[in-house]
Amino acid sequence: MPAFALPLELIAPVRLGYGTRPRSASADESADRLRRGGLKAWIDWQLAPDDRADAECLRRLAALRLPIKYGATPEREAVDEQRGLVTVAQPVEALWPVVIDNKAPGPERGRPRQELAAAQVTRAIWSNWGLRELMVDFWHGHFTVFGNEPRIAAALPSLDQVVRRQWAGNFRTLLEAVATNPAMLVYLNNRSSRAGSANENFARELFELHTLGRAAYLNALYNRWRDVPGAAQGQPQGYIDQDVYEAARAFTGWTIEDGQGLGGDRKLPQSGRFTYQEGWHDGYQKRVLATEFDPFQPPMADGRKVLDLVAFHPATARHLCLKLCRRLVGDAPSEALLAAAVETWTKTRSRPDQIAQVIRAIVLSPAFAQPGQPRVKRPLELVASFVRATGMEFTVTDRLLGELEASGQRLFTYPTPDGLPDEDAYWLGTNALRHRASLMLGIADNGFGTGGIDAGWTPPHLPADVAAAQWLDRLLPGGLAPDVRGRIGQAIAGGLGLAPGQPIGSAGKDTATIARRLPAYAALSAPFQYR
Amino acid sequence: MTHACALSRRALLGSLAAGGALAALPGVGRFALAGEPQERCLVVLFLRGGADGLMLVGPSAEAAYIADRPPEMRVLDSGDRKGLPLDHALDPRLDFRLHPELGPLAELYQAKQLAIIHAAGITDGTRSHFVAQDLIERGVAAEGDLAHAGSGWLTRLLGALPPRPGELVRAVCTSGSVDASLAGFGPALAAPDLNGGIGLYGGDPTRNVLAALYRTGDDPLSRSMRSAVGSLAGLDQRLRGPDGKVTPYQPENQASYDGAEAGRGLRVVAQLLKLEVGLTLAAIDMGGWDTHEGQPGRFANQAKQLGQALSAFWNDIARYHDRVTLVAVTEFGRRLRSNLSQGTDHGHAAPMLVLGGTVNGGRMYGRWPGLDADALDHGVDLAVTTDYRTVLAEIAQRRFGATPGVVFPGFTPPAPLGLLRA
What is the pLDDT of residues A442-498, one digit of tens each? Predict the structure, then answer.
């Protein structure tokens, strides 16, 4: 555990969002609200975001341009332009024609993912509603899809819209919205699942990743459903392969309009939208989680019944609450915290604000202030909290997105359905750490064209150790004792070859570089790296 | 390019098969007798997603195989897409064949450097990717053992070996993060490539600042940062020429790596081997095997990439064959019967591949349980007849002198398969 403890008013906005802006900035009232009203008032304010009160973020999203360039083809003219985020608000059918056209230029096919990633970083930095942004990221991780596949890229904006509607809503509602989203239907192959020999990919990950969780997979112990504890009472404690097989049958026919043949000359249209095909559905009786399904139910009723069973299962409450606690609080949450979250989850399971109530219960629990094991910030959290705390200019660029990717912060490009690992070890590999440093220093230097730190912010007459300590206090206002700041300042100055008390201006031609990078070096110290 | 590569490979493999004309090649003699235990390297190539073992190495003529799968989901024994036959002594009635895109593997097999252990895998019944991968990487038998396996099996193997003098990089992962098989081993290098060097932004001042900031501290970040700062600087220096520029890596023998995941990872391994930085273990990933849908085309593409990567690597490190053992493993095979998405769902056993200069190759090992209904695991999947740990423990013991029970706690291997000469 790191040898420092930061006060709650500094750490809460970081853990529950992406940090606050400096006190002087008017664009963000988060820090003042937290100081005046305490955590309770603050969390209620964050749980009811109002887009009208997010003008700066909306302005920046509207103004953002990313380059796109490709050569002429027989069907298309060459393009070399700066283009706005034109895809992020689009429904799947608007983006589908380009991605299914194999002759369409790659940059156009991949564009929705790129634009959404840029929007996500912009919002992380500029939105007043940091909690919403953090939770949107959480759900995108939980319901990971691989956005480098063009058909999935086309549906990513619609998946993002689903997550943005339900990020603090009802889990059962969110689950069905995701299960019927074209991005998920393509990614986990349910679109091609048919009666007779169903495709099990979605059903398996629905149990293992989206709902009950790996801890409730009892297959290693049981291969007969009656042996699962609780099965006789209709309340099995976990799931086995047979549940996966049967659930896969229940979802047959949940597909998308992607031109698949329907027999004879008939074909599905090409819109990319969800559709249910009764002809592909396995209508016979089923048994999922020790619950009997009658044969020949109305359209989609089998799948919806599975979603009810898994969404309301106690193992799901525990799995999701554990994930939420680990993300919002820290590793190894206490049993008391987890129990409080699970209780709220279960009690509010049919309410439209279930997830908001659970977040509230977690944040207002006494354990929130005493996390057992603080987590390392993810690179996006690090970048956003750094930009917010310094008050520097920042516009997302392609190069910045590339550097984030290299640091391990893959935005809609994680290759497997478990999503970005929620373990610190993932962010601490040699290369990830190397890119963590270059992210901070490159942003300060304007190395990615995002803006950069003004060297003039650090007067050259200041000794380097003093200036570094001052930057640390700006990054974490009042968070560290003067002697801790002083030691870190001296370590930074010493590393740069400057003795205590030696002014930055004495570094000759390196003066401006040091002045620009000093805030980044301060941000690379352990207190700013943890959340 | 491809043509030149194939010729060179044949030339090399021919000389190896002939038994050591290799020393006559320029620059090769120095290493021809290498392969001392302290110089050996093990490469674990993890085929993630559950590779369909029945399409990698298929029993082409087996009745149940033909009855249960359409032709495009099988390795065929005739026609233009017929598989590549493998000489074996498992059972004369069986006609095992490699997928037609695995030509380079057929050559390595014929050159007796590649061994195949079919129907291998975990004995636990899990069909979960993430549980099955964890079991293998932690080196345990059942899910219940995971709670007690704090470290990865490669970490335990490394712990059983003496340190090498002057070593800079003992273990490498090329997926970008540290593999679970190396969990608990702090100083593993995790880097997807070394093309641009591995320096720190800002050079020495940044290194000095980070070293000063993280000089002490026992938290995970401080420990990782110290180890990263130490290894990055030393390795980066080795990657650069006297002018400070990164020396572009030039594979030997016209070896041509493609840009795909496995090739990229193996290229890093070759590069580190030649830098002589003490590389002992490498954990390389190749994803994309989870073929629930559209398997015929996707699998062919995967097979091609796998063959290309192994062929490029083996060509490139011809001077090091006696020092290197590579094992390819997947978390599970796939269902015998295909689904209606032209794919296959999660199954059980699959082949393991072992490649090396001291491998008793050109042979198939293990016991083929058959695909008749009563021989299948749960009535649907190829049964496991060789515990994956039997293969890994034999390599650990034979190549590194490690005691099986230390690397795989609680595991007593059956009689050795005889995979390795040394």
Answer: 999 999 999 999 999 999 999 999 999 999 999 998 899 999 999 999 999 999 999
CA-closest candidate to residue B158, choices B187, B178, B134: B187
Within 8 A by CB and 6+ apart from A529, the residues are A376, A377, A382, A523, B221
3-state secondary structure of B411: coil
Query: Would you tell me which residues 54-113 of chain B have a C-beta closer than 8 angstroms to some C-beta of chain A?
Result: none
**Cβ–Cβ under 8 Å, residues B154 and B182:** yes
Domain ranges of chain A: 188-311, 379-529
Cβ A125 vs Cβ A54: under 8 Å: no
ipTM, two decimals = 0.94
- B329 pairs with which residues across the strands? B46
- CA nearest to A429, candidates B178, B20, B137: B178
A68 φ, ψ (degrees, to nearest 5)? -145, 135
- Judged by CB atoms closer than 8 Å, whether chains meet at B125 and A424 is answered as no
- 3-state DSSP of A349-360: CCCCCHHHHHHH
State both tokens at B311. Answer: 């062929």
Give A 389-418 residues with CB within 8 A of chain B. Answer: 408, 415-416, 418
Residue in the block written with tokens 């590999």: A429
CB contact under 8 A, A430 and B189: yes
Distance from CA of A184 to the nearest CA of B (A): 14
Give the burial class of B245: count Cβ atoms within 10 A of its Cβ; 0-12 exposed, 13-18 middle, 19 or more buried: exposed
Of A192, A426, A529, the CB nearest to B341: A192
CB A517 within 8 A of CB A444: yes
**CB-closest option in A1, A431, A494 to B192:** A431
State pLDDT tens for residues A262-279.
Answer: 989 999 999 999 999 999
- A vs B, Cβ pairs < 8 A, gives 184
Name A356's Cβ contacts closer than 8 Å, sequence gap at least 6.
A47, A168, A169
Q: Where are the alpha helices (DSSP H) in B240-357?
A: 261-275, 295-316
- Would you tell me the crossing angle of helices B203-213 and A430-445 to the nearest 10 degrees? 120
List chain A residues with CB under 8 Å of B293. Answer: 189, 192, 199, 201
Specify whether the CB–CB gap between A344 and A317 falls below 8 A: no
Q: Which of A430, A480, A514, A529 should one mutate to test binding to chain B, selecting the residue with the greatest count of B CBs within 10 A? A: A430
Residues of B in contact with A431 (CB under 8 A): 176, 189-192, 198
pLDDT digits over A201-252, tens only?
Answer: 999 999 999 999 999 999 877 778 999 999 999 999 999 999 999 999 999 9
Least confident window among A44-58, A285-299, B16-30 = B16-30
Q: Does A441 touch chain B (CB under 8 A)?
A: yes
The DSSP string of B3-38 is: HHHHHHHHHHHHHHHTTSGGGGSTTTHHHHT---GG
DSSP secondary-structure letter at A209? I
CA distance B89 to chain A (A): 34
